[in-house]
Amino acid sequence: MVPIKSSEITSEHIYVARRGFIKAMGFTAAGAFLAACAPKSSPDPIDGPTPVAQGGMDELGDPLNSFDAITNYNNYYEFSLDKTAVARASRDFQISPWTVEVGGMVRNPGVYDIDDLRTKFAQQERIYRLRCVEGWSMVIPWMGFPLKELLAQVEPTSDAKYVRFETVYRPEEMPGQGSGFYSWPYVEGLRIDEAMNDLTLLATGLYGRELLPQSGAPIRLVVPWKYGFKSIKSIVRIDLVDEMPVSLWMDAAPNEYGFYANVNPDVPHPRWSQSSERRIGETGRRDTLPFNGYAEEVAYLYEGMDLRVNY
Ligand SMILES: Nc1nc2c(c(=O)[nH]1)N[C@H]1C(S)=C(S)[C@@H](COP(=O)(O)O)O[C@H]1N2
Ligand SMILES: [Mo]
Q1: By three-state DSSP, how is residue 151 classified?
Q2: What's the predicted TM-score (pTM) here?
Q3: How do residues 96-131 score in pLDDT, each as one tens digit?
Q4: What residue's CA is closest to ligand 1, atom 23?
Q5: Which stretches of the chain are assigned E, i.e. beta strand?
Q6: Does the Cβ of 75 fall within 6 Å of ligand 1?
Q7: Is 308 contained in some domain?
Q8: Is the CB of 237 under 6 A from ligand 1?
Q9: Averaged pLDDT for residues 12-39
Q10: For the CA of 215, the nearest atom of ligand 1
Q11: Pocket lining: 206 vs ligand 1, CB cutoff 6 Å
Q12: Where in the sequence is the domain holding 142, given as residue range(s)?
C-alpha cells in the first residue's frame, strides 16, 4: 500500500461536484437516480423494499459517501493497484454461482450458497466508517448480517481461537494474482471474540443493492474499528483455527501491518502518521478517532494489551 498520490486529487473534484448535485436532489431521490442509472451488467437490487439509509449519515452525524464515490475508489489488489481503475478492471468478474465453505474447528461444517446466506440471515443496514491504513476514509451504508450469526450455525469447538478468511483464487480473472510479490490468495483473520462482536459484518450489499465486484461481491467482511485491509473481499472460505492466521499483509510486510490493526491515531505507521485522515469528498483533514470511533463497542476486547505495538 502506497501513500496517497496526486491521481486522487483529480477524482476528488468529481466527488465534490457530484456530492453537491446529490445534496440538491435530496437523499432519497439520489438513491433512485443511482439505481436508475446502474449499468445493465450490474446485479439487480435486493428484493423487497429498498433499505435507504435513514437521514443519510452515520451516528456521528457524518454524511454518507455517494454510491459513485464508494464504487469508483477501491483497494482491491487482485484487480489493480490504481484505486480508480478497480471498477473497470473487475467489471466481468464472475460472482455467480458462489459458495462459501465454513469449516475447521466447528461441529457443523458446511458449504453455503450465497443465495442461502442472503435468505437464511436477515440482511440489515449498517452505516460504518471505513478507515484505510493509507490515511483516507469513507462512510458506507452496508447491507449484510453479523458474522456471529453464521458462527452460531457452525458451532465453533472450544479449541477454536481465531477465524481465518480467504478470498477466491482465480488468477485467470484476477490479473493481480499473477504478481509474485504477494502470497495469494488474500487471507485475513480475527480473534474469535472480535469475530463474535456485533459490529463485525459479512456484507452482501451497499446502498440497498447487491455488492458490485469492486466492493468485494458477492460477500466480504467489514470490521469498522480496524484498518480497511482487515475487511477482506470476495470470501470463499472461513475456517475456525487455533493459531493466529498470517494475513497477506503480515506476510508481505510484517513490520508495517500487524494482526490486530485497530485504528489508532497514537500509533504511527512506520512510514506515516495515523493521527488524521482525509474523508473522501472533503477537503482538509479530520482527526482520526481511536478504534475509528467505535471504542465504546470494542475497547473492552483489548483490555490489558499493549496497544502501542498494535499497528
Ligand atoms: N481480497 C482483498 N480484500 C481487500 C483488499 C484487497 O486488495 N483484496 N484491500 C483491502 C483494503 S486495503 C481496503 S482499504 C478495503 C477497501 O474496500 P473498498 O474498496 O470497498 O472501499 O478492502 C480491503 N479488502
Ligand atoms: Mo486499505
Answers
A1: helix
A2: 0.85
A3: 999 999 999 999 999 999 999 999 999 999 999 999
A4: 229
A5: 99-104, 110-113, 124-131, 136-146, 162-167, 187-191, 201-206, 209-210, 220-222, 235-241, 276-279, 286-287
A6: yes
A7: no
A8: no
A9: 33
A10: 20
A11: no
A12: 13-302
